[in-house]
Write a structure and sequence with these properties.
The chain is mainly α. It is built from two helices and no strands. The termini are far apart.
């Protein structure tokens, strides 16, 4: 069991050194993905609102 725990710890330490080596790139990448998702979702919502208003099903 100890070998599994240490192996997992070493793997996580290795991945964190890679992430810290990338600097701000992961944070910027996540921010861009989130912003793109919000823009996409808002465009879909606008379409759904227009369709609901046209059909008379707006709540």
């Amino acid at each position: 069991m100890q070998q599994i725990a240490f192996a997992l710890g070493h793997f996580m330490e290795w991945t964190f050194t890679i992430i810290t080596g990338l600097g701000w790139l992961p944070s910027i990448g996540i921010s861009v993905v989130l912003f793109s998702g919000i823009v996409y979702w808002l465009n879909l919502q606008r379409r759904y609102d227009r369709k609901a208003e046209k059909d008379g099903t707006m709540a």
